[in-house]
Design brief:
With 728 residues, the protein is α+β, with helices and mostly antiparallel strands. The chain is built from 18 helices and 27 strands. The protein has 3 domains: 3-9 and 29-212 and 220-380, Glycosyltransferase; 386-453, Immunoglobulin-like (Sandwich), CATH 2.60.40; 464-634 and 663-689, no CATH class. It is elongated.
Length: 728
């Protein structure tokens, strides 16, 4: 409910004004039981998506006057995020990102009020797609302050200051799922634990164990409807059911509290399904629907969402609850006017018995879109799907982990089982590339199905790129949305402006979490920081960050510039290319190199696979290097095969950072002004290593400790690859 409507006032007026109403019964009533027997057809995905887009387009064309951080808009945004995950139109996510930018990624004005936190759900979900730290920074700061000074005490709704606690049932949709999403986005378990512990405090106070429903707040404990039943508000319990689903999306399957949430979800689902009316809707009063005959779509949308989500997760029997959700969707769709306006929405704070049937509101649109996303998924599964499981048995959090579904091609699509979002994918030589986040010990599941079954293909942001740059003296450049590199080609060796002979690897430092190479080359002023980063890294004839040579025990013998190139893949999730380095003399031994480089979205590391051609079968000792600067930097090497260097500060440009991960490294040396990691390479066989670069002003690595932690985590993840299994 709106903050302005939550101040205490007489209960009789409150009951009429706030429409916090009821429910009863345990078995399915005749109408709901009949719906199970009828088994309504699952709507076609194309029809569901068309309906969702029509409703969303009406809402975009008719903006509200609420503040962008208001709870009404926050719930609407959650629905728009569900739509953006399945729609072929970019405008829905763009609208949410524009709203976040407009608000400066801040939550509502009250630090503790749950209504002011719900918009953070969209911020976190955008972050999980875009990975821009700005989207989380204000929310994280605010939630850290709450953790430092939590508001505890009674949940009695008549006590002043009680709105600083989750003392009313609506709060369970607004607050806890936001905290859970922040935990998923950051890997910090404190936020999830706070959400879980405070959920149960509210539940222990407001949940009626015999009715399996929530009182709206403590003022309704003794209230009764006209038929003598307890007062349970329809939309209020919809908020709880929706909140349960959105919590379960982000409570890992191995979390000890998950079974308790599942049990409450199932108990409430059984109760709610039995209270569906003959027209497929739920009324504002759950236990006395006869006294509140007005059709009401906002609560129905939330129930449809939760029940359909439970069916899709296998938490609720499909044969029993699928028809309930499908009948509810049919009913909701019938309340969408030709222009896309969703009607029969109980207004905020108005008498539920007497409201304008034409009323609408953005929070109801949010619920409608959430419901549509799950009904859409039901349609996708018609005809069968294969399930992809990714297990993380170890103690490491795996963030933006690149994985491949073996054998799957470009004609297949992948859907996140928890959110119904169609995932960005890329066909590779081995299968279908995608990315996943997993908590320690967690298993995540995805649906593999023919791409032709999708009603639309959601746009995919390119987050990895590689290209030959003839307009800049044959540079070859590559980047992810986190870092960028280049190496020098043939033209620069003879160009009178530079005449640079170097096979070192250059670094372009980025604070913009997107692709910038083409734009920077077009402008030609990439040595200036225009708020996106710059090139201040000096390579010269050093190894830069990750160049290599042949080490004879005394010195490093290096090649000239690359001579030819070939792009093998150019995003959107992975860029792959090959460079050829012509033969060079390595202490009397001729050596040629073919180097395959790949970089993945979200990563500061590039994978290097080098194959050397050289007379004889004797191994070559390869030194992979990074330049050592004058001044106070921080260098560290690890016997498990990695070295990290936080360079001295470069004036106002900050600190560049470099790292090498070389599995099977035999040692490290400092030689010729650079640090080298050493390993033996057999001619004709691949030598694989990883080079990484970071920047103190990127927003990701504020200091050397943060960079070293990232490097150590990367090395540990490489040593323990995740397994992907696909059901028959």
């Amino acid at each position: 409910m709106s903050r302005s409507l939550l101040a205490p006032f007489p209960l009789a007026s409150l009951c009429a004004s706030l429409c916090l109403l009821g429910v009863a019964g345990t078995a399915l009533p005749p109408a709901a039981a009949a719906s199970v027997a009828v088994q309504p057809a699952v709507p076609a995905p194309q029809a569901v998506l068309a309906m969702m887009e029509r409703v969303a387009d009406w809402q975009l064309a008719h903006p509200t006057t609420y503040p962008a951080d208001d709870w009404t808009e926050g719930v609407g945004d959650a629905g728009f995020m569900a739509l953006s995950g399945i729609s072929g139109q970019r405008k829905y996510r763009d609208a949410m990102q524009a709203r976040g930018e407009q608000a400066g990624w801040k939550l509502g004005p009250s630090r503790y009020h749950a209504d002011d936190q719900v918009v953070g759900q969209t911020y976190a979900e955008l972050y999980l797609q875009v990975r821009d730290p700005r989207m989380l920074a204000p929310m994280r700061s605010q939630f850290d302050a709450v953790l430092a000074e939590p508001r505890e005490g009674t949940l009695d709704f008549l006590v002043p200051g009680v709105l600083h606690r989750w003392s009313w049932c609506d709060a369970l949709f607004m607050g806890p799922p936001t905290w859970a999403r922040l935990s998923a986005a950051t890997g910090d378990p404190r936020y999830l634990e706070f959400a879980i512990s405070h959920w149960w405090k509210t539940s222990d106070y407001l949940y009626d164990q015999s009715e399996h429903l929530y009182f709206r707040d403590s003022r309704y404990f003794q209230q009764r409807e006209a038929n003598g039943k307890k007062v349970f508000w329809g939309r209020g319990n919809g908020w709880v059911m929706g909140g349960l689903a959105r919590m379960l999306q982000y409570i890992p399957d191995n979390h000890p509290e998950r079974p308790r949430f599942v049990a409450q979800f199932r108990d409430m689902a059984e109760r709610i399904a039995g209270l569906q009316q003959a027209d497929g809707l739920w009324r504002a009063s759950l236990l006395d629907p006869g006294s509140y005959p007005n059709r009401e779509t906002s609560g129905t949308a939330l129930y449809t969402y939760a029940l359909a989500w439970g069916v899709n997760q296998g938490l609720l029997p499909r044969a029993v609850y699928g028809p309930v959700a499908q009948r509810a969707w049919q009913a909701l769709s019938s309340h969408v006017e030709a222009d896309g306006r969703l009607v029969h929405v109980q207004p905020i704070g108005q008498d539920p018995k007497h409201f304008d049937p034409a009323s609408t509101d953005v929070f109801a649109v949010g619920g409608f879109l959430l419901a549509g996303g799950e009904i859409y998924r039901m349609g996708l599964e018609q005809g069968g799907v294969r399930q992809v499981a990714v297990a993380n048995p170890g103690p490491l959090r795996r963030q933006e982990e690149s994985l491949e579904v073996p054998g799957a091609g470009a004609d297949m699509a992948l859907v996140d089982s928890l959110t119904a979002r169609v995932l960005p994918v890329q066909a590779t030589e081995r299968g279908l590339l995608f990315q996943a986040d997993l908590a320690p010990g967690e298993t995540r599941r995805y649906l593999l199905l023919p791409r032709s079954r999708l009603a639309a293909q959601p746009p995919v942001d390119a987050r990895a790129h590689a290209r030959f740059v003839p307009e800049r003296m044959d540079d070859f450049a590559w980047e992810s949305d986190r870092t960028a590199h280049r190496v020098y080609g043939p033209a620069i060796m003879t160009d009178p402006r530079e005449m640079l002979v170097s096979s070192g690897v250059d670094v372009w430092s980025k604070s913009a979490h997107r692709l910038v190479l083409d734009e920077w080359y077009r402008r030609g002023d990439y040595h200036l920081d225009r708020g996106e980063g710059l090139d201040f890294y000096h390579v010269g004839q050093t190894r830069g960050c990750g160049g290599l040579g042949i080490y004879d025990g005394q010195r490093l013998h290096v090649s000239r510039n690359y001579s030819s190139w070939k792009v093998l893949a150019d995003g959107p999730l992975r860029a792959v290319f090959e460079l050829r380095y012509p033969a060079w003399d390595a202490a009397g031994r001729q050596v040629e190199e073919t180097r395959r480089v790949s970089i993945d979205a979200g990563s500061n590391f590039s994978r290097i696979e080098s194959r050397f051609a050289s007379p004889g079968a004797a191994p070559l000792m390869v030194g992979v290097g990074m330049v050592r600067r004058d001044g106070a930097g921080q260098y560290r090497e690890d016997r498990r095969g990695w070295m990290s260097y936080w360079e001295p500060q470069h004036g106002a440009d900050g600190n560049a950072a470099c790292a090498i991960v070389l599995p099977g490294a035999t040692g490290f040396v400092a030689q010729q002004g650079q640090y080298l990691a050493l390993a033996a390479a057999t001619p004709g066989q691949p030598l694989v290593y990883y080079l990484g670069a970071g920047w103190s002003k990127s927003g990701d690595f504020p200091d050397a400790a943060a960079w070293e932690a990232y490097v150590a985590n990367r090395a540990a993840r490489l040593a323990a690859p995740l397994a992907v299994s696909v059901s028959p």
